[in-house]
Amino acid sequence: xxxxxxxxxxxxxxxxxxxxxxxxxxxxxxxxxxxxxxxxxxxxxxxxxxxxxxxxxxxxxxxxxxxxxxxxxxxxxxxxxxxxxxxxxxxxxxxxxxxxxxxxxxxxxxxxxxxxxxxxxxxxxxxxxxxxxxxxxxxxxxxxxxxxxxxxxxxxxxxxxxxxxxxxxxxxxxxxxxxxxxxxxxxxxxxxxxxxxxxxxxxxxxxxxxxxxxxxxxxxxxxxxxxxxxxxxxxxxxxxxxxxxxxxxxxxxxxxxxxxx
Length: 261
Known about the structure:
- This protein is of the alpha+beta class.
- 28% of the residues lie in helices and 26% in strands.
- The chain has helices at 18-27, 32-40, 42-54, 60-67, 74-86, 90-108, and strands at residues 151-154, 159-161, 173-178, 181-188, 191-199, 206-212, 218-225, 227-230, 233-241, 248-257.
- Helix 2 crosses helix 3.
- The protein is globular.
């Protein structure tokens, strides 16, 4: 991680180290003392912004292949494993556990997968990677190529909507995208509306919208069918909450779910 163009103000003895800022940012495990400090520290706010801009997350295609044991080269698999297990990226672990893993069963109409043990509750000698080894629980055995491709976009860090955010910021919309798939959650007169757009969507595909708390608790779930919009573009829209609701901090996740075969 390289940081350039830092503000003239230098770090104080109260400033967290660069390593701590990185780890706290990717795991979103800030202490209240750190939150209060960063709200008032120009140097740390700038540093966190630089970290956010340089942070790497695997693509939805890579994460889906990792979860379903699809085709990844060794370097990709090791990078994703390090990202999930060593860095403990909260955002990507939530996407894998709360979105991808349930969709494996739904998409294939398979037998229920074994119960997922949260990382903090798992025995210390058990690697967290066992949570993503799904194929062994499916009968009859299925080849990875039988899994349809999903497209997922998720906010890289929690965002605060109509509430005091991490650094005192207030937002009324959040936009996310991956490739030609994009989605947004926005407060309008009729309420919090989620929209998604994508190209060449198979007939019967749906958009799945989720709002997860920073702790990974599913707060809102909504679905909408994709409909033709313009040429080969398709559009889906769903009302997720009333206009008066404050969603607070959370991750916005949208997934393009192909029709079940």
